[in-house]
Amino acid sequence: MTFKIFLLCVVLVCCISIGIKISKHYAIRERFYKDLCDYFKEYKLKVSYSKQKILEIIDTSRNYGKEFSHFLMEYKRYITCEIDETLLTKCNSLYFLNVEERKEVVDMFLSLGTMSKEEEMEKSRAGEIINSEKYNKCKIEKSKFSSLYVKLFIILALFIFIIFI
Known about the structure:
- Helices cover 82% and strands 0% of the residues.
- It starts with a helix and ends with a helix.
- Helix 1 packs antiparallel against helix 6 (117-164).
- It is mostly helical.
- It has one domain.
- It is built from six helices and no strands.
């Protein structure tokens, strides 16, 4: 009997941790798009006023979230020819984005630093607008689904607990 209760408690903890893990997915997506918007704002300022090169901008950029910082380092490795475009597209730091979103982000970054100053400014403005829309969408998704998954898995765990007792 005690083993059964112990096993049910383990199932309860596992279900709750799965719900929390899924809800963190939405928080990571929201943070990534917020960092992306902030990066494009910073990029626009540094290109327009200090006329820094892309590598200098990456090196002097402020601290961002873990996922975005990791992507910036992968992008820096791409610029310095340590990795190729296909590896950047399959970047493990973007595991929380679907294939289409991943490609959009990579394409945005691949076009940076290859145009004139005016085109760079326009590209960074467009990137800022697009990513702020995605950030708002992710914020809404997080508020909808984050707590939903935690509650859903708590209910599942309690349901399993009730069935086996």
